[in-house]
Amino acid sequence: SARPDRARVSLRLGSRKEAAVAARSSVSRRLQYIAHSARLRGVPEENMTVTEDFSRVENTYQMEAEVCITFSDFGKMQNVCNLLTEKLGTSVTINPPHFYHTPEAIDTLRRQVCVTAVGNTRRKAQEVCRLFGQALGKPLLIKEEETKEWGGHIDNHLSHPADSQTLQERIQNATAYASCRVFAVFEIKGKENRRTKVL
User: Fold this and answer.
1) What is the pLDDT of residue 165?
2) Which of 81, 146, 156, 163 is deepest in the core (most CB within 10 A)?
3) How far apart are CA 173 and CA 152, in angstroms?
4) How far apart are CA 12 and CA 66, in angstroms?
């Protein structure tokens, strides 16, 4: 299994004022504070995305913004979110984090599962050989027969777990699992003769 290696947090903020400059300024100050706070805690600039929407609603100007921050350190994520909740209060809406795997993390899991399956096969073959007083020789054939994957989320903006879940439940639900079945043929070395047998 592999726990998610990334978390994306979306923060929303807005302002509606009679003057356009006032609406923009109100949102701009909070955006700067969010970016500054995240940078101070080691979040790279490229891990932050800001989108802004400016519109006219009746006789007022409305400025809305969304900040998406991607974290690889979940402790750092909690620190940033807690700070922004404390300092900005209800003037910013912090959505629950979306946990997911990068493609590299899934590739690593697939490789580890296959290597582990081959290692398990070899150990079982050694145990059988010891039972009969034989020695396990070199592998003659190793074939990956079946790989299964389940659970987990790949980087997907559309996946949003239920809001009622705890942080640990979200991480658990985003954990990826994989299994691999291998077929292996080993040489078996006997005391007097050598023969090949499928284990």
Assistant:
1) 84
2) 81
3) 7
4) 5
Strand partners, 37: none
Residue among 69, 154, 73 at smallest CA distance from 110: 154
Q: What is the dihedral of CA 83, 84, 88, 89, to 10 degrees?
A: -80
Letter for the amino acid at 183? F
Q: Which residues of 137-176 are buried (b: 16+ CB within 10 A; e: fewer)?
A: beeeeeeeeeeeeeebbeeeeeeeeeeeeeeeebbebbbb
| Angstrom distance (rounded) from CA 90 to CA 13 | 9
Q: How many CA atoms lie within 13 A of 89 on its CB side?
A: 1
Q: From CA 178, how far away is CA 143, in angstroms rounded?
A: 17
Using one digit for the tens of pLDDT, what is the confidence trace for 24-80?
999 999 999 999 999 999 999 999 999 999 998 888 999 999 999 999 999 999 999
In angstroms, the first-to-last Cα distance of the chain is 27
Say how far apart CA 103 and CA 109 lie, in whole Å: 10
Helix (H, G, I), strand (E, B) or coil at 4: coil
Can you identify the CATH homologous superfamily of domain 6-100? RRM (RNA recognition motif) domain (3.30.70.330)
**Chain-centroid distance, C-alpha 145:** 27
Domain boundaries, the chain: 6-100, 103-189
Report how far residue 54's alpha carbon sits from residue 60's, in angstroms, rounded to the nearest whole number.
11
Q: What 3-state DSSP class applies to 155?
A: coil
Place of tokens 């599962």: 113
